[in-house]
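U., I forgot to send this yesterday:
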Amino acid sequence: MTGPLTRAGRFLRWFLRPFASQEPSFYRAVTACLLAAGLFWQMNALNKTYTTRLDLPLTWRFDTARFVSLRPLLRSLPVTVTGQGWRLLRANLGLGLRVLELHPVPRGGTRYLPAGVRRDVQNALDPLKVEEWPGDTLRLAFDRRATRRLALVLADDTLGGSTSNFRPKRRYLARFEPAILLVRGPATVIAGLPDRFPLLPNDFPAPGDSSDQTLALHTLPPQVRPAVSEVRLHLRAVAAPRRNAK
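Result:
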């Protein structure tokens, strides 16, 4: 008895035998026919109507010198549209797709895009028809920009994370460069920072020794932008004062 693989092999050889002795021009003609059939099928499919999702590019226009967004602003808006296949193909390739300009009104608290933006979305995607867009769930939050100066102080992990005033009784003398840090960001976030901002050294020198360190400002909130990316710290260990024997 012959198995299914053997029968399949015989059938394949029988099917391909007529093509084995043909001239090269025959194969070129067959290839051209297959390509023409595929192109015709593709063109016929693109003439039909489909529903799909597109990413509409966005640009935001507001006074960035006075206001800052508390949430990352979208670079594109997911929109479900219906249209002819050719037009959908052009839109997916970025051809003829206009960038939507949004002009939010920066105010405190959480806000949503106004209902009138749907008309702007439709105009940007015309002649495609907008079926769905996340206008009711796209939350915006703005705050005024603020600037503040913070005094840098030493955060001593041996003291449970508390800050010192650099007096000898704290065992260390510290000098920061710059000593005052200028930061800029949302007013509500800036207001929550301490007047004396603590920084933890990379290491603490032994008594009588000193060290120069470069400290990154990674403990600042992500919305806050410091005037410098890092500060220099000169740290000197001071021996604790001896107590008088009784």
